[in-house]
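Worked example (supplementary).
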Amino acid sequence: MFMEILPALLVVAAVGLLAGILLALASHFFCVEEDETAKRLRECLPGINCGACGYKGCDDYAASMAQGTAAPNLCVPGAGTVAEKLSGILGVDARETKNNVAFVTCNGNCEATSKKADYRGIDTCQGASMLYGGPNACLYGCIGLGDCARVCPADAICVLDGIAHVDSSKCLGCGLCVKTCPKQVIVMVPQAVSTLVMCNNREKGAEARKNCTNACIGCKKCEKNCSAGAITVTDNLARIDFDKCTGCGICVEGCPTQCLKSVCFSDLSECS
Amino acid sequence: MFKSLLVILLSSVLINNYVLSRFLGICPFLGVSKKLNQATGMGIAVTLVMLLATAVTWPIQYFVLNAFGLEYMQTIVFILVIAALVQMVEIILKKVSPALHRGLGVYLPLITTNCAVLGVTINNITDGYGFLESMVSSLGVGLGFMLAMVLFSGVRSRIRESEIPESFRGLGATLIAASFLSMAFFGFAGIVDHLFA
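After joint prediction of all chains, the assembly is encoded as:
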C-alpha cells in the first residue's frame, strides 16, 4: 500500500521542488528594482484595476505617480480618502495638484433654445442622441438627460434648466463624463482659466442663431478684439488658447450672443 | 500531415470552441468581455499561456508520468506546473518586456488556474495528439477563446445600450446572449470534416 503511494508522492514533490527552485532562480535573476515610493503608493490604491485614472491598472498608476508624471487625485473609486493618503506620501497638497475640471460647453437652456421633437424613448442622452441626433433643435448642444450626472463618481453634476452643470469644487477631474457624453459637449479645462466659450455649435452663424439665441455665430469679433491673440474661430466656433488668455474679459463684453462667459470656478457651484 | 493539422486548428477554433461548446473558461468569458480591448488582451494572454502550458505539460506526461506509471496524478501535477509556469512568465516578462507586462500583467494572475488552460492540456493527452498536434490544438483553442471573447464583447455592448425587462438585466441577459452565441457555433459542427474531403 505504502509502496504504491511513495512514487506518486516523490514525483509530485520533485516536480513541485523543481518548479519552486526555478521560480526562486527566476525571481533572483529577473528581479526588477521596485521603486519604494511606488510600492507604498500602490498599497494605498484599491487594487481593482478599473482604469478610471487613465492608466493601465493600479500598478501603472502608482509607478507614474512615483515618477512624478501623474497627479495623486485621479483614483476614482478611492476618491478623497485615497487621494489624501497618496498626496501625503508624495508630500504635496491634494488640492494643489488638482488642475483640470470638467466643463459643459453649452448654454442652450430652456429659454435660449427649443426642441424639434418631443422625445419619449429611453431616458438617457445616449438613447436620445441615437434618434435623429437628439430632440434638441441644436445638434451640438447638451441633451440634458443626465448621463454625465449618473456616471459622475463625485456627484458633482446636476441638470438645471435643460443643461448639465459641473460643480467644480466637487469635480475630481476623472473625465468619466467626457467619455460618456454622446455629444462631446463636456471638456476638461484647467481650473485657473477665467473665460470660456459656452457653445459647441459648428454650424454657420445664421443656422446656429436660429436654433439657439446663446449660440456662437462665428462672427470673429472676439478674435479681432483679443489683444493676446488667444481666440481663434474655426468651424464657426470660437476657441480659446488657455496658455495665451490673460483673462482681461474684453471678448466677453464684445460678444453679441453672450456665448463667451467670464467664469470664476468658485462661483459655479450651482448644484448645491 | 499539413491537412490534419489544419483540421485540428479549425475544429478547435470553431467546432470544439472551449467556451461555447465545452463550457470551459466561462469565468473570464463573462468577467472580462465587457470591453473590446480588455477582451482582446485576455484572449492574447490565454493563447500564450495555453501554448506554453502545452509545451511543458506534454513532455511531463510522456517522459515523467507515463514512465513511472502515474497517469492518475495528471490533474494535480498539471495544475502545479501551470501555476508555476504562469508565475515564471510574469517574472520574466516584467524584466524583459515591461511594456508587454503592463499590457498582459493584469490578466496573467487570472489565468493561473483557469479551467480552459488545464482542460486543453489534459484533452491534448486524452486525444492522443503528438507534440506538434498538441501545440496546434492549443493555438486553435486559444484563438477560439479570443474569437468568442471578441464576438461577445460586441454583443454585450449592444445589450448595454438596449432596454431590457428588469428581471433580465445584468447576468440574466448576458447568459441568454451567451447561449445564443453558443447555439450559433453549433452550426459549425460537421463543416470542417467536409471542407477537405
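Two points are worth noting when inspecting this output. The interface with chain A takes residues 60, 64-65, 68-70, 72-73, 76-77, 80-81, 84-85, 87-88, 91-92, 94-96, 98, 102-103, 105-106, 161, 163 of chain B (CB under 8 Å). Residues 62 and 125 of chain B are 9 Å apart (CA to CA).
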